[in-house]
Design goal:
Structural class: mainly alpha
Helix content: over 70%
Radius of gyration: 19 Å
Distance between the termini: 23 Å
Number of strands: 0
Largest sheet: none
Order of helices and strands: HHH
């Protein structure tokens, strides 16, 4: 389906790849900016070590839960 869409609108696979890479890079930068805005004041309040350990805990739980995904 994607190839038919690309052919219909005159996009090559390379152009599509560049578009997808740019999109995800932009989303990652926006996520990093939002994370810095939100977690900066929390780090001042609770400390960086506490937030880092909390982030590691959330990441570890997410990794374990993703192992059950089908």
């Amino acid at each position: 389906h994607i190839q038919a869409f690309l052919d219909q609108h005159g996009w090559s696979n390379f152009q599509w790849l560049i578009f997808v890479m740019m999109f995800f890079f932009s989303v990652a930068l926006i996520g990093a900016a939002i994370g810095a805005i939100v977690l900066g004041p929390l780090a001042d309040r609770f400390g960086r070590k506490t937030l880092l350990l909390f982030s590691v805990f959330i990441f570890s739980c997410s990794c374990m839960l993703s192992s059950f995904a089908q």
